[in-house]
Amino acid sequence: SKFKINPGDLALQEKAWNAVCPLVAKLKRFYEFSLRLENALRSLLEALTSPPYAPMQHLEREQALAKQFAEILHFTLSFDELKMTNPAIQNDFSYYRRTISRNRLNNQQLEAENEVNNEMANRMSLFYAEATPMLKTLSNATTKFVSENKTLPIEDTTDCLSTMACVCRVMLETPEYRCRFTNTDTMLFCMRVMVGVIILYDHVHPVGAFAKTSKIDMKGCIKVLKEQPSNSVEGLLNALRYTTRHLNDDSTSKQIRALLQ
């Protein structure tokens, strides 16, 4: 490039450092928020799957909780869509870490160095290395919830997820419901929640969301997405392509694979 930065140019280094510090503080806040989301999701799953009620009864009886679950999924997919389109995040964080370790060697103390200690930086690196970090957090939390609650039939969790996917799909594909959506935000909300529960279902269910025996009408869900303007759904289709577990299994029908090509 025309402008080669001389490593000795302290003014430029300081400028870069001052620009990157607030970004790292923000990345740290989001990482910490993901841990809070994980705990919140676990409590919600406990409430929405506890006996003696069936998933649909739970969703009807505890509509406020179902709405909270939906809000978490909506935030998660919105965050990850932004993350996917911002590759600079990891570069900025690497620059921050390199600068800190170089200054440790030179015994220079920089302000904000105590912002992120080494262990925290390692955890943040792993988090942001994921294509969809928030979704990965929720998938892991759901899987963990199922494995820790041995007495709870796995269907209680997966039925709750498939029921939510069904509700979203029906709302999106039925004209008399759809005409009540006053703005595109409501449509997007519904689509994100639908994709979110599909991905969680696919991580938790032994055969996943794409098999013939799946309780989610995947063809219907993908068709609903494909009817929308591509700029608003490309991120969601990518989430189905790249963050599900079972899409490439032999049990997935060619039709469904073709829809996601």
From TrEMBL:
One of its GO terms (molecular function) is small GTPase binding. Its main location: membrane. GO terms for cellular component: membrane. GO terms for biological process: regulation of actin filament polymerization. Residues 11-257 form the CYRIA/CYRIB Rac1 binding domain. It is a lipid-anchor. It is found in: Membrane. InterPro entries: CYRI, CYRIA/CYRIB_Rac1-bd. Belongs to the CYRI family. This is Family with sequence similarity 49 member A, like.
